[in-house]
Amino acid sequence: MREIQLRDAKANLSAVVDEAIDGKPAVITRHGKRQAVVLSYEEWRRLSQVPSFGRLLMAAPARAGDLPARNRSRLRKTDF
């Protein structure tokens, strides 16, 4: 990913956007510090739709024999 100074990005914004659309994002720097990233809308959409951990677990291809059997002999006995 290339870095470009803010003043250069302003002067060449169309080119920076065209490159981002072509899959070449750019990091915008101000006073030598990384401040922003220009990337295509499609890439941003792909990155922003990260599923939750729960959805990832639900989508896992688990079968009945994939998990270890429960050892009931180690359960604690309680008096109620």
How would you describe this protein?
The protein has 80 residues and is an alpha+beta fold. The chain contains 4 helices and 3 strands. The mean pLDDT is 88. A 3-stranded mixed β-sheet has the order 1-2-3.
What are its keywords?
single chain, YefM-like fold, 3-stranded mixed beta sheet, 19% strand, 4 helices, elongated, 80 residues
List the helices and strands and how they pair.
Blueprint: E1 2-5, H1 6-11, H2 13-21, E2 26-30, E3 33-38, H3 41-48, H4 53-59
Parallel strand pairs: 1-2
Antiparallel strand pairs: 2-3
CATH topology of the domain at 2-52: YefM-like fold
Overall geometric form: elongated
Rounded radius of gyration (Å):
25 Å
Sheet with the most strands: spatial strand order: 1-2-3
SSE series: EHHEEHH
* Assigned CATH architecture of the domain at 2-52: 3-Layer(aba) Sandwich
The level of helicity is 25-40%
Q: Quick one: CATH class of the domain at 2-52?
A: Alpha Beta
Structural class: alpha+beta
Kindly report how far apart the N and C termini lie: 64 Å
> Which strand-content bin applies to the residues?
15-25%
Number of strands: 3
**CATH homologous superfamily of the domain at 2-52, by name?**
YefM-like domain
Q: What's the rounded overall pLDDT mean? A: 88
Regions with pLDDT < 50 over 5+ consecutive residues?
Answer: none
Number of helices, counting only DSSP H or I runs of 4 residues or more: 4
The largest pleated sheet is described as: 3 strands, mixed
